Hints:
CATH architecture of chain A: Sandwich
Oligomer: homodimer
Order of helices and strands of chain A: EEEEEEEEEE
Distance between the termini of chain A: 26 Å
Helix content of chain A: under 10%
Largest interface: A-B, 41 and 41 residues
Strand content of chain A: over 45%
CATH topology of chain A: Jelly Rolls
CATH superfamily of chain A: Jelly Rolls
Largest sheet of chain A: 6 strands, antiparallel
Shape of chain A: globular
Number of helices of chain A: 0
Amino acid sequence: MKLTHFNNVPLENVNAEGAENTKIRWLISDKDKAPNFALRMFELEPGGHTPYHTHNWEHESFILQGTGVLVTSEGEKKFQQWDVIYIDPNTYHQFKNTGDTLLRFLCAIPLKTKKTETKNPLGDRQVNNC
Amino acid sequence: MKLTHFNNVPLENVNAEGAENTKIRWLISDKDKAPNFALRMFELEPGGHTPYHTHNWEHESFILQGTGVLVTSEGEKKFQQWDVIYIDPNTYHQFKNTGDTLLRFLCAIPLKTKKTETKNPLGDRQVNNC
């Protein structure tokens, strides 16, 4: 069992190619013995973005604060605080902070999916991004 | 892919025995073709609570607004906005709104775990609760 404030969880740089001004907190992960999925918080400075990429696992996201756009192969869609975003496996996506304030969102991913099919046009193969 | 505001997702009563003044929104679920886990939002009125119970699957939770206590076999622990809560499988737990305002929190659960071991002292066997 774990009960802690989010800011007690280390804030780590996301160094994946294609990511800019993006940080991550692994709020709940296999380090907590979570058996099936991990809950992460992303923090993007204004102008920051995650890589535009695709992979064989899903994202379940919730916008905590700030505004931005979700980039997909069908174009850009704006999002705002307390929006819910589900991204199917094998779907190109990118989160961009288009506002003037910090963007924070949650992003949960499965832990058991064999992660084999990352396709990041910018060459990254890390899972430590969104 | 799904991008919507949380209040576009239906707010449903939680009728499980032991729950009081508790409602749920299934933000992302198997209805969205999510393959591994579901993301729900709970809304508890002041004084409201989920059942005190245990089951063989985990919870990964994040407090969005309001205050309350998490009841476990080791006693009560207070929580506040933007706290992170991980509850291991087979661990007794209950969420209580002890504040004067609406308590909203996210709670993710696995979809594939065979849900066989619910032990709710109040007799409920539904999964539609937290």
